[in-house]
Amino acid sequence: MTIRALFSAISFAEIAKALKLTFRHMRVKEVTLQYPREKLTLPDTHRGALGLLCYEDGVERCVGCDLCEAACPSHCIKVVSGERQENGMLRRIATEFYIDMTKCVFCGFCVEACPVNALGMTKLYEYSTPNKRSLIFDKPKLYEVGEKYHGEAKAYLVAHNQEKADEQASRYRYRFPSFTKSNDVPVL
Ligand code: SF4
Ligand code: SF4
I need a surface site. Which of 26, 39, 96, 105 has the fewest CB within 10 A? Predict the structure, then answer.
């Protein structure tokens, strides 16, 4: 043992060094959150659970165009499209809509692909469940999420430059051509 090592052992220098480090860390601001009592404030750009949105008058925004399904890299969206007669007009709608949240990678491509901003991402992330099947969100569930977290979904669209904060969503509404009953010529 060298004289230096002997002196270090006698003077407990290593213990003093460790205590110095401990006391220094006692003054450092804590970064650990005591989840679930404490929660992070998430930015508007946060990509959480997806929801389907309605216009201000309650009409579903989705027109069943399937673009979100085509854009999804995880193939976790399934849209079944159909047509509905409304005031003499034929309107395309999504009769069924499924998103398998167990496969979603939260890339946001589906939101970007939607021409009418019918999809939005919310800050919802607490939906763990022992039943994996309940994570396949169907159309009622997606509209339920969209209605409950409408503000967050709108903030997401604004944060990603898809909508402006001060404008109504109806600006993006798709106007279906109306058909005259006599000769079926579309009136745009
Ligand atoms: S966020 Fe990405 S992975 Fe998830 S459903 Fe949309 S496109 Fe698919
Ligand atoms: S959510 Fe948008 S992209 Fe997907 S089917 Fe509906 S309108 Fe089309």
Answer: 26
